[in-house]
Amino acid sequence: MDSFKNAIKNLITKSNSSPTKIKNYEADTDGNSYDYCEAMTLAGDVAIISNSNCNYIISSNFVSEYILIPDKIFNTSKARIKVLEDVRENYVRCKSIIYSKLLAELLIKKLNTQYIDKQSFFIRETFESLLNKYGSYKLDGRHYIENVFNYLQAILRKNGKTISFGIFNSFKCKAANDEMFDELLQFFTSEPNSIFDKHLSLLNIFKKIFTAQKAYSYLKYVDSYVYKEVFRRIEFQNSNPVDECDTIQIAIDYDILNIDQINNINDIKPISHSILVFMVLEITLISQKLANFILDISIYPETFISLALEQKRIIEKYGPKFSFYKLKKMKILDSAILESIRLTELSGIERQIENNYILSNGVELKKKKTVKFGRFTHNRNPFFFGKNTHEFDYTRNLQLENELANCSEKNLVWGIFE
Name one GO molecular function term (predicted). Predict the structure, then answer.
């Protein structure tokens, strides 16, 4: 027993080595996924990233360890707060994170089959209108697009402004007619998936200062809109009912805002910034992945055919009307979406290290530094994902019995068991 205690004590107090330094593959234009995976393997799946705002990256060898390390050691909130630390006050950043989680929980409760059915109609309508606009022509009953990349870019912008599951409803009227809104939307969604993926170059330092100034002006604009909209809705709530799956309305209905304590526009900031988080997430997590998925099924026609046949079978058996039950039956669709995400997902799930921590291989990570999980290389690990992990295989997740809705070591789409 004493020897076991001594071993644990040594693990906590001593470090056998420091991490290897590797280049920032996810920000560099040269190099490829094979080089990146090899570099991480040679580094033992833990490395210092050069030219990055994030200090460390760890990958597959430590996935279970990363899941189990408590928040008091690898802090989630402090890492997230850094994203906009130059333009938001501390109390606003902290409260907006809390409000974002609360709004997400309430929004999910509000979603129902009827609402999703309505949104799916908007998506279909959007796709069809863009097909006609971007050089599409029809031959033998099939649509052909002359420039698929212009089409995908249009989907990204169109989806961001008009399609949502309650995230953008608060802003739909603004999105349709307001150039400033369109501008801020592009601004907040043009950054990398993670703020930590950027280079630390002189150019980017100047860019960061300029970006902070623009971000501040856009945040003020969102604050002003939400502030006016909240009181407009309260005044006319009986005569002008709104969609129940609407983030502003949810904040009002569930008294998240605490209206009696809102004396000026500064008091609205935490909730308006949390709504802005939803806006950014919709485009980065839904629209971009949707565009990548469309590109994948365009490149691999056998995938498209399998998906079409699966949906045809389900419609013939259960009818054309949407339902969650039928959606759960679309196993090939689940597998194909997850495969597309697997190959396009960057590293992330950042943490701030609160105390010096020694990994199970003896490598020490220093406190007050940041660490992220290497999803990019993890998602190409043959141990978890089988053969040919750098290639798209829409059946892969069917074979692995890996479902889109489940969070596991083989599916980090939803985070890492947060």
Answer: monooxygenase activity
